[in-house]
Design goal:
Strand content: 15-25%
Number of helices: 4
Strand order of the largest sheet: 6-1-5-4-7
Radius of gyration: 16 Å
Length: 177
């Protein structure tokens, strides 16, 4: 049964001068770059987005609704002011990659989970915009990260250790049985 963790960041929440580096679309992880971060900050049309309070609760509601709509099993979610994680599994379509950390682009399971992510991102963005009374303001970054959960210990670590750490970041965590 394919199990995926996906992460979606708030708009401009992970700057190019982050100590761990940054992800450049279609190029992957890059070294930290202070000059690029300054240039992007000067040319940005909107300030960095933060999702707090009622909006975090609303995101958890959207996540639950989309999981039901797309018939995926929702195991847990963590929402902070700068990003959110969702842990899901499903029976079909099956993964054709085995237990690799990242499924290949042609894998039916990966293609399916990406349709779930796209739908979830769209509805989360609309919900947060409505709560904040905004339009034409991005709330989420363009991309996302989807990682295949390798095994049961990895799954347990995410739910029991990794997700709870997000509460200290001003976030919320919810688990579903």
């Amino acid at each position: 049964m394919p199990v995926f963790l996906f992460t979606i960041h708030a708009y401009r929440s992970w700057s190019e001068d982050h100590p761990k580096g940054f992800v450049q679309r279609d190029e992957g992880l890059q070294k930290s770059n202070r000059r690029l971060a300054q240039w992007r900050m000067q040319h940005a049309k909107n300030s960095p987005a933060r999702v707090e309070g009622i909006a975090q609760e609303a995101i958890l509601g959207v996540v639950e609704n989309i999981a039901t709509e797309r018939a995926v099993r929702l195991h847990g979610a963590a929402v902070t002011p700068t990003h959110f994680h969702v842990l899901v599994s499903f029976r079909s379509p099956a993964c054709t990659c085995g237990v690799a950390k990242f499924c290949r682009p042609a894998c039916p399971a990966r293609r399916f989970v990406e349709t779930v992510i796209v739908r979830m991102k769209r509805k989360v963005g609309q919900t947060v915009a409505k709560l904040n009374g905004t339009c034409d303001r991005p709330w989420l970054s363009r991309g996302w990260d989807s990682t295949r959960v390798r095994d049961r210990p990895h799954f347990d670590y995410l739910l029991k250790t990794y997700f709870p750490k997000h509460v200290a970041e001003g976030g919320m965590v919810r688990r579903w049985e």
